[in-house]
């Protein structure tokens, strides 16, 4: 196999460690800013207000209207608040939904962003923004979208419910699995992907057993950084395409959909590129699809698409949409094979 590759490092500052969210004000100043608008979802409003209080005069205010899938009308409202508070940067405190809002504001205004992630989704280290308007989700990639500073503070993930910790972790692992066989993979993305998978393999079962274990929470957040970074660096394939289809057309929940689909898409591609998935096979055991399925089941992940409200009749359409625009995948894709794969995922069957 050829060793040729292109590697481009991401220019973000990564600050990692327990209690490091206390440095948010310092980083606002390091960016040359004086008025930060703190963003959150309605559910994390109290945390955002507490952060704004700690920022003191460096806080321009709080906008707590972030929601899933970054609707453009919410972004427009938040951008209006940026204008009338004269904010010169945003601080996003939360999961992928809040990070998405900060990115959408930055894309429109070029304001710098500080992100303090509280889930494992990985959006904070990618230059990718998915946004919705008129029921359609579109994706844009631009340098202005990549957050300038990310502060990973495991203490802020202690309250992430166990079920969400599991699905969010599996969501991040899906970035790493697809990075292993990405067409544009490079030695660094592969090292990061393998390390990220190890971090979740060891931390998720420990978090299920003991959600308040801050050291294992730190391991999972470390995995989130690694897996998110490879998502931002190399191209994704079948798995992300199917999850995008299911979420975009059938409104299935983001992290749960990734969690259910991962063993099936990994098994499908392992048939074509077993060598590229050998490191994942070594981590999860057996065949990579079966090993990932056993791991997900053992930590209490949702296992079947039918439990997400998807009907069996939806599978034909899902297979059609997921295969209609030709895109690169290590194993050729045809509608019938994807329909079989979706049936297994719908029923929650262990991949062969
Ligand atoms: P989320 O941000 O929607 O969070 C889910 C809920 O959990 C929210 O109510 C949130 O406030 C709450 N929450 C978050 N952290 C918490 C904590 N520590 N304690 C208690 N509650 C907490 O969920 P997500 O899975 O992180 O993000 C999903 C979104 O991110 C999707 O829209 C997806 O498309 C996007 N995403 C984008 C990228 C990218 O690179 N563009 C990557 C991954 C995900």
Description:
With 352 residues, this protein is an alpha/beta fold. The protein folds into 2 domains: 13-157, Rossmann fold (3-Layer(aba) Sandwich); 162-347, Dehydroquinate synthase-like, alpha domain (Up-down Bundle). Helix content is 51%, strand content 11%. The chain has helices at residues 24-30, 45-55, 72-85, 96-109, 162-180, 187-209, 214-233, 238-250, 254-270, 278-284, 288-298, 314-324, 335-347; strands spanning 13-16, 36-39, 59-63, 89-94, 113-117, 128-133, 136-141, 149-152. The strands form 2 sheets. It has a 6-stranded parallel sheet with strand order 1-8-5-4-2-3, with helices on both faces. It has a two-stranded antiparallel sheet with strand order 6-7. α2 links the parallel β2 (36-39) and β3. The mean pLDDT is 96. The structure holds nicotinamide-adenine-dinucleotide. Nicotinamide-adenine-dinucleotide (NAD) binds next to α4, β6, α5 and α9.
């Amino acid at each position: 196999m050829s060793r040729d590759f292109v590697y481009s490092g991401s220019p973000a500052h990564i600050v990692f460690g327990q209690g490091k969210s206390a440095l948010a004000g310092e980083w606002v100043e390091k960016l040359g800013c004086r008025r930060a608008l703190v963003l959150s979802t309605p559910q994390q409003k109290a945390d955002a207000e507490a952060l704004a209080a700690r920022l003191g005069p460096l806080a321009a205010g709080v906008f707590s209207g972030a929601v899933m899938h970054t609707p453009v009308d919410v972004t427009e409202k938040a951008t209006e608040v940026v204008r009338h508070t004269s904010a010169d940067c945003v601080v996003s405190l939360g999961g992928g939904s809040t990070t998405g809002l900060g990115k959408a504001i930055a894309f429109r205004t070029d304001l710098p962003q500080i992100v303090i992630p509280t889930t494992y989704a990985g959006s904070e280290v990618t230059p990718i923004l998915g946004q919705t308007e008129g029921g359609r989700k579109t994706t844009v990639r631009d340098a202005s979208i990549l957050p300038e500073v990310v502060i990973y503070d495991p203490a802020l993930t202690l309250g992430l419910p166990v079920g969400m910790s599991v699905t969010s972790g599996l969501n991040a692992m899906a970035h790493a699995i697809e990075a292993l066989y990405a067409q544009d993979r490079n030695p660094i993305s592969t090292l990061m992907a393998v390390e990220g998978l190890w971090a979740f393999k060891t931390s998720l079962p420990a978090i299920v057993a003991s959600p308040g274990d801050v050291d294992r929470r730190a391991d999972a957040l470390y995995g989130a950084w690694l897996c998110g970074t490879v998502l931002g660096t190399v191209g994704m394939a079948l798995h992300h395409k199917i999850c995008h289809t299911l979420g975009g057309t059938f409104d299935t929940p983001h992290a749960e959909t990734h969690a259910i689909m991962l063993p099936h898409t990994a098994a499908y591609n392992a048939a074509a590129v077993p060598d590229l998935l050998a490191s994942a096979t070594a981590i999860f055991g057996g065949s990579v699809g079966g090993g990932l399925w056993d791991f997900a089941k053992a930590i209490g992940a949702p296992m079947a698409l039918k439990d997400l409200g998807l009907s069996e009749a939806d599978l034909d359409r899902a297979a059609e949409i997921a295969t209609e625009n030709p895109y690169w995948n290590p194993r050729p894709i045809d509608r019938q094979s994807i329909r079989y794969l979706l049936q297994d995922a719908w029923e929650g069957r262990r991949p062969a």
